[in-house]
């Protein structure tokens, strides 16, 4: 899920995508142009969720082909160029960055999940415990720093000088109105800080090193909150196909309990199912694109 030109967004998009995406392989060998086949681009075509998904799609009378990609740039280009019907591998922020920087108009038509970014505290279990500690460590890379600070905003621990910032930095924090101080360190050092007793926002790929799971988070971003919405992963197609009835069935199938069980198995329980409507997703996309253009 990575197309980057804006310095603030380059890494940001990449790392967050990495939380939810890994290299994939083609799950079906049919490369024909049969109009009855719906081709879906994914960077996780080798995951068990897609096998279950294909079975459920077949039961629903749909013939789907999962095309695997090993990088995050190609699936959107392939969709724009007509080599795919839809793709499902990215969150809204990544899609917005692609559209803005490629002059494209790809559109989300269904939500899948979000991979929450969490706040962890070895010596506490509540946000009040973190407030009492008085300090929180966040990753210093621009990818996760902005999202981490917004996690603290959602938790009520930090106030920004200006609301609604896509990628706030420590300089954007209103220290007088905030309940904790924020220290930015290398992402790997958030684990050390956590183990030493300092509350920390830890990237999902460092959780194992901290010997915690997503379930141990004191607080994590809420998909319903504006700060987290750009990180909702989505189904995407071209603007002229956004109301395609068969494509909309794909969204329903993805939320089938058996498919969701496979998603949880594939993600070690870190994925949170999201059912935000297509209309709202498109509003979030438009807002995110506007913020990217403003930053550019």
TrEMBL record:
What is the membrane topology noted in the UniProt record heading this document? Answer: Lipid-anchor
Q: Fetch the InterPro entries from UniProt.
A: Lipoprotein_NlpA
Which domain of life does the protein's organism represent? Bacteria
**Which parts of the chain are coiled coil?**
none
Name of the protein described by the UniProt record: Methionine ABC transport system substrate-binding protein
- Specify where it is mainly localized: membrane
The major lineage groups are: Bacteria, Bacillati, Actinomycetota, Actinomycetes, Mycobacteriales
Give the subcellular location: Membrane
Its GO CC terms are: membrane
State the SUPFAM superfamilies in the record. Periplasmic binding protein-like II
* Alphabetical UniProt keywords: Lipoprotein, Membrane, Palmitate, Signal
The record's similarity note reads: Belongs to the NlpA lipoprotein family.
**For this UniProt entry, which residues form the secretion signal?**
1-29
**Pfam families xref list:** Lipoprotein_9
